[in-house]
Every structure is written in structure tokens, then in C-alpha cells.
From TrEMBL, chain A:
It comes from Phoenix dactylifera. This is dolichyl-diphosphooligosaccharide--protein glycotransferase. Its EC number is 2.4.99.18. Keywords: Endoplasmic reticulum, Glycoprotein, Glycosyltransferase, Magnesium, Manganese, Membrane, Metal-binding, Transferase, Transmembrane, Transmembrane helix. It catalyses: a di-trans,poly-cis-dolichyl diphosphooligosaccharide + L-asparaginyl-[protein] = N(4)-(oligosaccharide-(1->4)-N-acetyl-beta-D-glucosaminyl-(1->4)-N-acetyl-beta-D-glucosaminyl)-L-asparaginyl-[protein] + a di-trans,poly-cis-dolichyl diphosphate + H(+). It is a multi-pass membrane protein. Catalytic subunit of the oligosaccharyl transferase (OST) complex that catalyzes the initial transfer of a defined glycan (Glc(3)Man(9)GlcNAc(2) in eukaryotes) from the lipid carrier dolichol-pyrophosphate to an asparagine residue within an Asn-X-Ser/Thr consensus motif in nascent polypeptide chains, the first step in protein N-glycosylation. N-glycosylation occurs cotranslationally and the complex associates with the Sec61 complex at the channel-forming translocon complex that mediates protein translocation across the endoplasmic reticulum (ER). The keyword 4Fe-4S does not apply. One of its GO terms (molecular function) is dolichyl-diphosphooligosaccharide-protein glycotransferase activity. InterPro entries: Oligo_trans_STT3, STT3-PglB_core, STT3_N.
TrEMBL record, chain B:
Component of the oligosaccharyltransferase (OST) complex. The gene is LOC103704781. GO terms for cellular component: oligosaccharyltransferase complex. It comes from Phoenix dactylifera. It is a multi-pass membrane protein. GO terms for biological process: protein N-linked glycosylation. Keywords: Apoptosis, Endoplasmic reticulum, Membrane, Transmembrane, Transmembrane helix. Subunit of the oligosaccharyl transferase (OST) complex that catalyzes the initial transfer of a defined glycan (Glc(3)Man(9)GlcNAc(2) in eukaryotes) from the lipid carrier dolichol-pyrophosphate to an asparagine residue within an Asn-X-Ser/Thr consensus motif in nascent polypeptide chains, the first step in protein N-glycosylation. N-glycosylation occurs cotranslationally and the complex associates with the Sec61 complex at the channel-forming translocon complex that mediates protein translocation across the endoplasmic reticulum (ER). All subunits are required for a maximal enzyme activity. It is found in: Endoplasmic reticulum membrane. It comes from the Eukaryota. The keyword NAD does not apply. The chain crosses the membrane at residues 32-50, 56-76, 96-114. This is Dolichyl-diphosphooligosaccharide--protein glycosyltransferase subunit DAD1. Belongs to the DAD/OST2 family.
């Protein structure tokens, strides 16, 4: 692998004969140019690879948006391209959270939408007549390719160009990153990881060079990150922590001052331009670390400067005493007053649950109910990282051997992000760039050492045979010659082993991408009885039925999971959606779903509901349906309305839907809507009618009668069921 | 005891003054600019305490423009100071150009934020 051999080892004059690329010799390129050509072509291939590996679902299904959140992003991007930036920035949406509405312009992160709209405009300008949906679908793979480039430059900054290439190659196919950036996953993280790595790269470059220009670039990178994702809080806490560590360990320098101050002040100002973030940088507890370190830095460097101009240590000590007491007291007083009066808000539940993982389960059931917020299992780590999991400690070892400002940064990034990845599954994504970079250091350093062993052996044997004058030298060289063959073989064997591991990594990543992370989750696929593929397109069938068969101002009540999809594809007003900003409103819907039909009817009348949509997996065996989510509806509803009690729906603490189920469960609205007419259906050969394939039992209440609702539409595989709310009866 | 601390303080101030007098003139100009910016920021904070903080974005943009330009001037001073060995390869024109450019960006953002 000539690409990994670096400028430290000059090839001996006999090199051209052993060089495996004869055509390069004909081009008469010098070694440096050969190396550059190999590097550039490797990077180009990695760029294309990162894009191509994310295209599985486009090839297998079609070019469509996946999951739930991307539908909201798609809808807003559509609005942006149609109505322009001013309308977008000031948009009040009356079609969701009926009757409250939602201030979309002020409650979203616009980075992703603006990026996609800009790409769309640019392509249109070049007269590519492309639909905005295609741009949205392919934005994430495009930015994943750009991330590999940034990873190359970052690796070059930390270690050397070989590590940069290895980092780019590792991050191009790492499943931890692929999971949130496949084609079709049009979500904030696709762009945010690029922005994160870019900001960190610019900041490390600023610390290394001490230039204001790089500091400004990192401020702009931070601005892009703030506009793209709520995870920017990680940057604004990691960078001050890094500065603190450098100050404490005595590795501070003037360059650090220039870099941090430029980034903090300009970054903070730019970040406050995003309406959703607002004044949080000066008012929220999560951002106070950065401000504290800013002030600490001013004091620290001022004291340092005074020490420098005063050449008398005794005077300096008294000065130091005065300033320290003053600044510590002022700082503590300000912080104390701020927190006591509540001006500085404490850490919000979303981020507090990262520090105390048990907090959400006890206090905020909505956060606890999201599957991505659960703690990570070891199998997830292995699944998402494979060999990087043991290359990470190896890389840490190499980084500690050669500590510099840049390696300290990457070590801190790696360790903090690994902690958070352990707390929440979703945050494996944030840890992935750090793990890839550190593992790349290990890979590059190991392979470099091994190839150097192989090369110097051949060089030493040549020089040994040409020189060898005194007997002492001859005997020494002789012993060296004797030890050489085994070392060389061992080095070759280790190198082969390393390449085997890397090839297994590539195979694993491709398999994981193909099997686990390329499903659109709005279209389900299964294997039929004869092995052929069966596609369930029920979701889109239902949403398009809504779009074409209901009146334009109809209001649809469903669980909050489906809100974004209903507004984007069905184009109807919904009561609650995935934004989950209003817990009481969601609890009202939860209460309606868990009450008896007449109580639910009153709630639905108060909310002007025209249609109710439920998801039911009993016929297909689809297990993410509303009956399996029902207990969360009960818990969230019960959190606000004490009339809903969870034990009413359980039998001996067990959740059942068959004959032994609790009577409230058998007669609540959700049960009735899911199992209406299901008792007459035979779902599986040899089982009685009304056999629920997702729960594996025969249902308890087969004779469901609806008084206030009527069935409007059931999809072909019974996955989505829509009911119309009947108007109140005439009085006579 | 009090006498020794006051005499200590006097000696401290005197030696600070003599040490500072030795700095070159261009650095003293930058220091003057920094002091001016900080004083302006303090005046704005005092005004806010008297009058109230609405509209908050205007107050923030005013204070942060002063603090920002002071900090950037300190960075310029660091880069231009001949005694800093880390920056001896950096031509002072480049440092000044960086300073001007960053200030430009700072004030553009401030003008957008002023409201």
C-alpha cells in the first residue's frame, strides 16, 4: 500500500523496478507527484463510495422520503421554495396542532431546508429540471461525501495525511453515520454531522495556527451547526471544556486565546440570529460553561500578561491575590444571583436526562417513550462500529504518545461523545466521527510502522552488504541480519491480518447498510410464501385517500407519530404531531384514545375532530402499531389527567388484549377502532377468527359496535384504519 | 499591617506604571482602543440597569459589539507584539487585515441583530 508510506521513508534508488504501477513511470512523475495523484484518486473514490453506499433504498423501492421527521422537513422545504425566505421565516402554520397552530418560522432549525433550497436553486439555474423531492432525498448522501473530505483534512491536521485518508475511508461506510444519512432520510443530522466536523476542524486549525481567519471560519461553521441541529449544545460545551483542560494542564498559548475568543464572540452572535435559539446563549444554563470559560480566560491571560511585564515575583503574588479574590467573588455572585432569580434557566429536561439518565423515566414520559432515547446496548455498539470498537482504545494510546493541542482535542471529543453514546442510542451518531478519526490514527500508525519494518529491513541488508568494515560492525550487522527474516515475516503477516480486518469491516458495513438501515419505514416489505417480495404500501394509500376523499378543512386525530406524514402527504389539519411541544394537547388525545367511546366523543367534539386514524398490525403481524404503543398513550394521558389510571388497563401488571384482558381495555376507543370487524376475519390458517398476529392471541372482544363513529376507510392490509366522527344525533 | 498592604499596593502600581511605559507606541494605541470599547460597554450596561432591558436584542447587540471589538483588538495586539515568539512569522499586515475583516463580519451581524 504505497499510499500509506509517508515522506519519512525515502524509497531506495531501486524503487522504480519494484513499483507496481508501470504507467506512472511512463508519465515520468516525481515521487511527490505520484503520491499526490494516489491521494487525490483515493479521496475521489472515497467520495463516490460514501454517496453510493447510501443508495440502497432508492434502488430497491423508489426515491421517497423516509420515516416521520423528514416529512416535516420536506413540507417546510416545499414551502420555502414556493414562497421564498421571508414567508418561510415568518410562517405561522394553522394546519397542525389544531386549534393552537404552530409558529413554524420560530421553532425550527432552518439549516437543512435552506441548504436543500439553495442546491435546488443552483441546479435550476444550471437548467437541470429537477423536482425538489429528489434534491431532498439526495441531500444527506451528498453531505456524507463532503464529511469524508472534512475528515481527511481533520485527520491530516491531527496526525498526518495517511491518517486522514484512513479516517475518510472509515467514516464513508461507518454504519453509525449511515443510519441517519441514507438517501431519503432527509433529517437534520444528515447536514449537522458535516457542520459539526467542519466546526471542529476549523477550530483545531485556528488553535494550531493562531490565525483570526480560521477562528472566523470556525464561527461560521458553528453558525451553520446551530442553524442545522439542536445538538450544537455539544459544541458549545465541548470547546470550553477543552480550553479549560488546556489551561489546567499548562498547555495554553496565545493561539488558544485568539482562537477561542474569536469563535466564541462571533459564533454566539451569529447563533443568536436563529429565532429558535434566540437569547439562550446568555440565558440558558446549558450555555453558561462557555461564558464562564470566556471570562476565566480574560482574567487568566490578563494575570499572565501582568506577570510577564512585572519582573518581580513578590509584587506579582500580591497582585495575583487581589485579582483572584475579586474575580472569583464577582463571578460566583453573578452566577448565584442568576440562578437564584431564575434568569439563568436550569438545564432543560432533554439535556438533563443525558446527565441523569433516570430523570426522563420518572418525570417526562414523552422523552422516555421515544425508542431512540433509550440507553445503548453493547450489541448496538458492535453493530454500528465493528472493528472500530477495539481500534478506538488503540488510537487513544497513539494519541497519548504524541500529545499536542490537536490530539488532546480529539481525545476529549472521543471520550465525551462515547459517554453520551452510551446514554442514548441516537447519540452514537455524534460519536462516530471521533471514533473514526481516532481509529484512523491507530490504523495509519500501525500500518506505517509495519511497512517501515519491511522497507528498512531491505534497505539495511543492502547497506550492510556494501559497508561492513570493522569486525564489530560486521558481527553486529550479522546478528541484525539474522533477526531480520523473522521480523520481516512477522510484519508481513501482521499487515495481512490488518488488511483482513479492514476488509471484514467493509463487508460488515455494507451488509448492515443493506439489511438494517435502508428501510423507508413508510413502505414495509416482507417475504411471501414462495420467497417473492411483498410490499405493503398502506400508509401512503391511507394518506392519499385522505387527500382525495375528505373535505379540505377536515381535521384528523391520530397519535402524534403520524402527524407530520398526515400534513405532508394527506394535506389535512392534524391535532398533534411529532413536534411534541405541547404535552397537555397530546395528553388530551391520549385521554380520548383511552376513554370509553362516549367520553371520547365529547373530547373529539371539543377539538372539532372529523376523522380518526389508527394504525393496526394484527392482520400483517406489524408490531409498531398503535395497540403496542397504547400504554404510552395511557401514561402520557394519565400524566395530565388523573382520571386515566394505568392499572385499569392491565391485568396483574400484564398487558393483554385477549379474553383475560381488563374490561376497560376491551371497551376503550383505541381497542374498538383497531378491532372493529376484526372478529370476523381469519388471519392465519388453522387459527380462530379474530386472531391478532402481532400479539399472537385471539382477541377478547370480537363483537365491537361503534355508536359515534363510522368506518371510513381501511387499507388493503388493514394497517391504517380511518374512521369518520358522526355529527351529533338529532334531538327528535 | 494596613500600612504594609497600602505601601505594597503603591509599589505595585508604581512598578506596573514603569513596566507599562516601556511598551511600544503602537501597542499603547491598541490598548487605548480596548479601554475605550470596554468603557462604552460599561456605560451601556449602566444605562440598561437604569432604563430596563427592552428590547433585549438591541442591548445585547450593543454590548456584544463593544466586547467583540475589544476582544478582537486584544487578539490583534497579541499577533502584532514583537515579543510573542509564536507569531514572529506572521506579517503585521496580515494580522491587521484579519482584524479588519473580523470586525466587518462582527458589525454586519450586529446591524442585523440590532432590530
Amino acid at each position: 500500500m504505497g499510499a500509506k508510506a509517508e515522506n519519512g521513508v525515502k524509497p531506495p534508488p531501486l524503487a522504480p523496478s519494484s513499483f507496481p504501477f508501470p504507467f506512472l513511470r511512463t508519465l515520468k512523475l516525481k515521487t511527490k507527484q505520484q503520491e499526490l495523484l494516489i491521494r487525490v484518486s483515493a479521496l475521489a473514490l472515497i467520495y463516490v463510495l460514501a454517496f453510493a453506499v447510501r443508495l440502497f433504498s432508492v434502488l430497491r423501492y423508489e426515491s421517497m422520503i423516509h420515516e416521520f421527521d423528514p416529512y416535516f422537513n420536506y413540507r417546510t422545504t416545499l414551502f420555502l421554495t414556493k414562497n421564498g425566505f421571508y414567508e418561510f421565516w415568518n410562517w405561522f402554520d394553522a394546519e397542525s396542532w389544531y386549534p393552537l397552530g404552530r409558529i413554524i418560522g420560530g421553532t425550527l432549525f432552518p439549516g437543512l431546508m435552506v441548504t436543500a433550497a439553495l442546491i435546488y436553486r443552483a441546479l435550476r439555474f444550471l437548467t437541470f429540471a429537477i423536482h425538489i423531492r429528489e434534491v431532498c432525498v439526495l441531500t444527506a448522501p451528498f453531505f456524507a461525501s463532503n464529511t469524508t473530505l472534512v475528515a481527511y483534512f481533520f485527520g491530516k491536521e491531527i496526525w498526518d495525511a495517511g491518517a486522514g485518508l484512513a479516517a475518510a475511508a472509515l467514516i464513508a461506510i461507518c454504519p453509525g453515520y449511515i443510519s441517519r444519512s441514507v438517501a431519503g432520510s432527509y433529517d437534520n443530522e444528515g447536514v449537522a454531522i458535516f457542520a459539526l466536523l467542519l466546526t471542529f476542524y476549523f477550530f483545531v486549525k485556528a488553535v494550531n495556527t493562531g490565525s483570526l481567519a480560521w477562528g472566523l471560519a470556525s464561527a461560521f461553521g458553528y453558525f451553520y451547526m446551530v442553524s442545522a441541529w439542536g445538538g450544537y449544545v455539544f459544541i458549545i460545551n465541548l470547546v470550553p471544556l477543552y480550553v479549560l483542560v488546556l489551561l489546567i494542564t499548562g498547555r495554553y498559548s496565545m493561539r488558544l486565546y485568539v482562537a477561542y475568543n474569536c469563535m466564541y464572540i462571533l459564533g454566539m452572535l451569529l447563533a443568536m440570529q436563529i429565532r429558535f435559539v434566540g437569547f439562550q446563549h446568555v440565558q440558558s444554563g446549558e450555555h453558561m460553561a462557555a461564558m464562564g470559560v470566556f471570562f476565566l480566560m480574560q482574567v487568566f491571560y490578563f494575570v499572565d500578561w501582568v506577570k510577564y511585564i512585572l519582573h518581580d515575583p513578590k509584587l506579582f503574588h500580591s497582585f495575583l491575590r487581589i485579582t483572584l479574590t475579586c474575580s472569583i467573588s464577582v463571578g460566583a455572585l453573578a452566577l448565584g444571583i442568576g440562578m437564584a432569580t431564575g434568569y439563568i434557566s436550569p438545564w432543560t429536561g432533554r439535556f438533563y436526562s443525558l446527565l441523569d439518565p433516570t430523570y426522563a423515566k420518572d418525570h417526562i414520559p414523552i422523552i422516555a417513550s421515544v425508542s431512540e432515547h433509550q440507553p445503548t446496548a453493547w450489541s448496538s455498539f458492535m453493530f454500528d462500529f465493528h472493528i472500530l470498537l477495539f481500534l478506538f482504545p488503540a488510537g487513544l494510546y497513539f494519541c497519548f504518545k504524541r500529545l499536542s493541542d490537536a490530539t488532546i482535542f480529539i481525545v476529549m471529543y472521543g471520550l465525551t461523545s462515547m459517554y453520551f453514546a452510551g446514554v442514548m442510542v441516537r447519540l452514537i451518531l455524534v460519536a462516530t466521527p471521533a471514533v473514526c478519526l481516532i481509529s484512523a490514527v491507530a490504523v495509519s500508525a500501525t500500518i506505517k510502522n509495519l511497512t517501515r519494518l519491511i522497507r528498512t529491513k531491505s534497505k539495511a541488508s543492502q547497506t550492510g552488504s556494501s559497508k561492513g568494515t570493522s569486525s564489530l560492525k560486521a558481527s553486529a550487522k550479522a546478528s541484525l541480519d539474522q533477526a531480520l527474516p523473522f521480523q520481516r515475516n512477522a510484519a508481513i503477516a501482521l499487515l495481512a491480518g490488518a488488511f483482513y480486518l479492514l476488509s471484514r469491516y467493509a463487508i460488515h458495513c455494507t451488509w448492515v447498510t443493506s439489511e438494517a438501515y435502508s428501510s423507508p419505514s413508510i413502505v414495509l416489505a416482507a417475504r411471501g410464501a414462495h420467497g417473492g417480495r411483498v410490499i405493503f404500501d398502506d400508509y401512503r394509500e391511507a394518506y392519499f385517500w385522505l387527500r382525495q376523499n375528505t373535505s379540505p378543512d377536515a381535521k384528523v386525530m391520530s397519535w402524534w407519530d403520524y402527524g407530520y406524514q398526515i400534513t405532508a402527504m394527506g394535506n389535512r389539519t392534524v391535532i398533534v404531531d411529532n413536534n411534541t411541544w405541547n404535552n397537555t394537547h397530546i395528553a388530551t388525545v391520549g385521554r380520548a384514545m383511552s376513554s370509553y367511546e362516549d367520553e371520547a366523543y365529547e373530547i373529539m367534539q371539543s377539538l372539532d375532530v372529523d376523522y380518526v386514524l389508527v394504525v393496526f398490525g394484527g392482520v400483517t403481524g406489524y408490531s409498531s402499531d398503535d395497540i403496542n404503543k397504547f400504554l404510552w398513550m395511557v401514561r402520557i394521558g394519565g400524566g395530565v389527567f388523573p382520571v386515566i389510571k394505568e392499572p385499569d388497563y392491565l391485568v396483574n401488571g400484564e398487558y393483554r388484549v385477549d379474553k383475560g384482558a381488563a374490561p376497560k381495555m376491551l371497551n376503550c376507543l383505541m381497542y374498538k377502532l383497531c378491532y372493529y370487524r376484526f372478529g370476523e376475519l381469519t388471519t392465519e390458517y388453522g387459527k380462530p377468527t379474530g386472531y391478532d398476529r402481532a400479539r399472537g392471541v385471539e382477541i377478547g372482544n370480537k363483537n365491537v359496535k361503534l355508536e359515534y363513529l363510522e368506518e371510513a376507510f381501511t387499507t388493503s392490509n388493514w394497517i391504517v384504519r380511518i374512521y369518520k366522527v358522526k355529527p351529533p344525533k338529532n334531538r327528535w | 499591617m494596613a500600612k504594609s498592604t497600602s505601601s505594597d499596593a503603591q509599589m505595585l502600581i508604581r512598578s506596573l506604571r514603569t513596566a507599562y511605559a516601556a511598551t511600544p507606541t503602537n501597542l499603547k494605541i491598541i490598548d487605548l482602543y480596548v479601554v475605550y470599547a470596554i468603557v462604552t460597554a460599561v456605560i451601556q450596561v449602566v444605562y440598561m440597569v437604569i432604563v430596563g432591558s427592552f428590547p433585549f436584542n438591541s442591548f445585547l447587540s450593543g454590548v456584544l459589539s463593544c466586547v467583540g471589538t475589544a476582544v478582537l483588538a486584544v487578539c490583534l495586539r497579541i499577533q502584532v507584539n514583537k515579543e510573542n515568539k509564536e507569531f514572529k512569522d506572521l506579517p503585521p499586515e496580515r494580522a491587521y487585515a484579519d482584524f479588519v475583516f473580523c470586525n466587518l463580519v462582527l458589525h454586519l451581524v450586529i446591524m442585523n441583530f440590532l432590530g
